[in-house]
Amino acid sequence: MAALELLQLNQSLPQLSLQREGEECLQRQPSDQPWSSQRVDIYEARFDDLLECAHSLSTAEQQRASRFVRADDAARYCAGRTWVRRRLSADLGVPIDELELAVGAQGKPEVPGHPIHFNVSHTDAHIWLAIAARPVGIDLELPPRDDPALLLQQIATQREWERARAAGITTERFLILWTAKEAVLKMLGTGLMTDPRSIELGALGGLDPRVVSVAGQWACLQRVPACDDAIAHVAIAGSQIEVRMKDWNTGKET
Ligand SMILES: CC(C)(COP(=O)(O)OP(=O)(O)OC[C@H]1O[C@@H](n2cnc3c(N)ncnc32)[C@H](O)[C@@H]1OP(=O)(O)O)[C@@H](O)C(=O)NCCC(=O)NCCS
């Protein structure tokens, strides 16, 4: 969803199939569990690598897929959600057909009954998955075409706005603040139902990772290297973070 659309919004069975013909689609590699409480595993996959995999979706997910207007959106949703299920299943050591996903009150997907939290973010070409032992949020965004000053005004507190104005408002500065705030809001599980101006992250860029206080709890926020011109942040509940980048297919640390 484009940044501006999101801002406007704020204003206002399973099958066990890991193979495609003769080819392994995802290697099942149990992770080196248990996670330490500050650890976040991040996987990045290209939809091009996922689109031909056989789907493993629940009935509710299949119904959601059928509601997409555009066929390529539906295809990306099915491929992405199947991959997320397979990664969680591999990491938890739970058969994919026994893995149930639920949705929190404000739409955040969860794995009830397991000591694991995850969050997803995607662009048209890539999908990122963060897995942790604590509530986690991840956001990846490509540069928007809209005026960065207009966008920034809608997400920044007065202090953040003044700081950005003094440094010079650029699309990159907007994106850094935007992905940081969205990662934190996704960690909290409210997403943009919470006004991004209601949290203050201050100056970003100098101190990374950084600990912030939001909604009465600590969150630790870190920028993650992203491909193309994208900018990404991950946030985990607590005051420490240890990010591990993992291969989308093998699950091994990269
Ligand atoms: C959730 C939200 C932040 C996603 O922003 P986005 O930049 O368009 O999309 P991203 O690619 O970064 O993230 C999308 C993923 O976030 C996750 N997500 C959805 N709602 C979420 C929430 N409340 N908190 C955290 N993560 C959420 C989902 O996994 C989703 O991917 P999926 O639908 O393929 O599973 C944004 O749509 C939002 O806040 N909406 C308001 C909440 C809402 O509409 N809830 C509806 C149900 S009450």
Please tell me about this protein's structure.
It is a single chain. The chain contains seven helices and twelve strands. The protein is α+β, with helices and mostly antiparallel strands. The protein has a single domain (3-247), classed as Ribosomal Protein L22, Chain A, CATH 3.90.470.20. The strands form four sheets. A four-stranded mixed β-sheet has the order 6-7-3-12. Strands 8-11-10-9 form a four-stranded antiparallel β-sheet. Strand 9 and strand 10 form a beta hairpin. The chain binds coenzyme A. Residues 1, 6, 9, 77, 80, 106-109, 119-122, 137, 139, 182, 186, 189-193 line the site of coenzyme A.
Order of helices and strands: HEEEHHHEEEEEHHHEEEE
CATH top-level class: Alpha Beta
Low-pLDDT runs of 5+ residues are 1-30
The share of residues in helices is 25-40%
- Roughly how many Å apart are the termini? 29 Å
Please indicate the count of domains.
1
Structural class: alpha+beta
Taking all Cα atoms into account, the compactness measure Rg is 18 Å
Strand order of the largest sheet: 6-7-3-12
Shape: globular
Number of helices: 7
**Whole-number mean pLDDT:** 86
CATH H-level superfamily title: 4'-phosphopantetheinyl transferase domain
CATH architecture: Alpha-Beta Complex
- E-strand count: 12
